Amino acid sequence: MEKSDFFLGEEKKILFSLYRKLLQLTGNTLHKGDCRKIKTDLIHLVREQRVQRDIFGLNPFLKEMQTAVIVAEEIGMKRASILSIMLHESVHQGACTIEQVETAYGEDVATIVRGLIRVSELYDKGPTIESENFRNLLLSFAEDMRVILIMIADRLNMMRQIKNSSNDEARRQVANEAAYLYAPLSHKLGLYKLKSELEDLALKYTEREVYYYIKEKLNETKASRDKYIASFIAPLERKLKETGMHYHVKGRTKSIHSIYQKMKKQKCPFEGVYDLFAIRIILDSPLEKEKLECWQAYSIVADMYQPNPKRLRDWLSVPKSNGYESLHITVMGPEGKWVEVQIRTQRMDEVAERGLAAHWRYKGVKGESGLDEWLTSVREALEHSEGNGLEAMDQFKLDLYEDEVFVFTPKGDLFKLPKGATVLDFAFHIHSKLGCKCIGAKVNGKNVQLRQVLSSGDQVEITTSNTQTPKQDWLHIVTTSKARTKIRQALKEMAAGQHEMAKETLERRFKNRKIDCDEGVLMRLIKRLGYKNVTAFYQSIAEGTSEVNDIIEKYLEQQRRENEPDEQNSRSAENYSLQNAAPDDSAHTKEDVLVIDQNLKGIDFTLARCCSPIYGDEVFGFVTVNGGIKIHRTNCPNAHDLRDRFGYRIVKARWAGKSQGAHYSISLRVVGNDDIGIVTNITSIISKESDIHLRSISIDSHDGLFSGMLTVMLGDTGKLEALIKKLRTVKGVKQVSRS
Prior knowledge:
By secondary structure, this protein is of the alpha+beta class. It contains 27 helices and 21 strands. The strands form five sheets. Strands 1, 2, 3, 4, 5 and 6 form a six-stranded mixed β-sheet that branches. The chain has a five-stranded antiparallel β-sheet with strand order 12-19-20-18-21. The longest helix is centred in the C-terminal third of the chain and has 32 residues, at 481-512.
């Protein structure tokens, strides 16, 4: 790579060293010309000076190569992933396009690059993801598992590189994110080695004193610990040799983070943590004899040392959903100390160390691990989630760290569920239709309720009823995100059906009483009655809390109030009203000042009365049932509901030309001290404004304050803002706002 001021000190030597290591790790999977092309792309990027060092001052080229080495060496991923890591920054900075990447390196590389760019864009604002973007990050992850694996490697690499950074706050942020997101992800994907390092580094950067206290204690006890491990292993090795099995045994000290968690959980000092290490027996067994030889080794250990039956973990018979297979047993060793022994084969150990990538290579089928199903459930949950980024993050984290239970159907089919899952979770896990009709179950032959928590080994037969429908409180019964998502979807569909029925009922009653329903009047009534949105209004009709005839009477009253304002009263401002003749508040003049959906012609449009848009407001069009278009402000109280329920009827609209000659009706709400003199001052200010006409004022008085509604005619938002500013200067006026 050419000489460049971008590389400082020893960085260029490190770059070439990493480059050679990558070639060594991935050379047999690279295509002819890959190295030459990628080298050219990177030189081009350096020449154009498109890339910058990050907040920690790290060189992006070195950082990407270090990440690529982790991905190749510690996870076992090859060509497509390595090239994607090296190329995505070029695409992100605009030095080349996705299409060019696809042409030069193939569709597989381009797919990963797309995912990495989406994630990079979320990290553009800072070293960590902001909570409101968390959902978008998870959606990017859910598109391709390889993006998650690369980002875990990227974060681990960053955690390794920032140990000497002077930016403590940014380092703390990165460490916290690694602890709550990337370590749990590594756990879920079976990358236990990477998970432990992420957790240890996060503890080092966030609780430095605790980290070094435990590290020093481990160093102090290392000699005695090594001696104990040797005395424990020696008799085991003699017995294992007698069987003729090929194996090796190693002792492993538990991670600093794991020890700290035990200290907190057991509320004890370092000396009180008895299982500081684990013994691992790794067998070199042919595939067909793996389970047999593992259980044989288990028998040898159990004969030699007293086992704790409550601490047996059998992931041989039923592997974890991330592909992890092993036998864990805790036995009483010499000197009365408990020791954890892990028994697995060489293949199982590589899957445990390298996780998903190794599992795919051995199994040859991605879906075997069960992680594809997990990713699908994550995607569905995020796409239908209503909560904010923090809520999504909390639920996601819970899903990552859950232990598993294994339950059976009456036919003997095995299903894996998170620990704590209920009968209702199981029903939705099998099929959403089964979940929606579930009324209970038979667990091991006994009738149980929906909220019954399942245990490993349970045989579950779901009981259904055609009259059953999902309930809101079901969301408090289920524990899995899949079930929660399906219940929310079903409730939303039911609410939409009830909403439509309620709307049809109201429209039919209006028709029966020969009343023309004005949508604007109805919307203002809904607002006056205190409903948050139209959906809540119709829901109240569907649930019977609002009676249709009462609503119609209130509608007629609302109509009368709008058409017949109250008369002026004495010296108090209460009931003060004024009506002036003014220009017609038509939607537009002869001059074409509104462009709808790219100059569509011959379309009748009117300004919605619920928000009274004027020239200069940001607006959109809504196609009504009779084919006309109503123009709403983008911040109209009903905008969210219209977009949510009738997105297909929304059309673009914008103001064009000038507002000269056009007048629009708007309402202002004024709150102030109850004094007729203030009202006089307000009307005086408006009367002095050129091209602004006062149509009416309606005043109510309460507890020494008046609340007034002013209707004025003016040309655009500029005049409106100037008027509001002047009204706020009137002595005694406390608030002026557009209604």
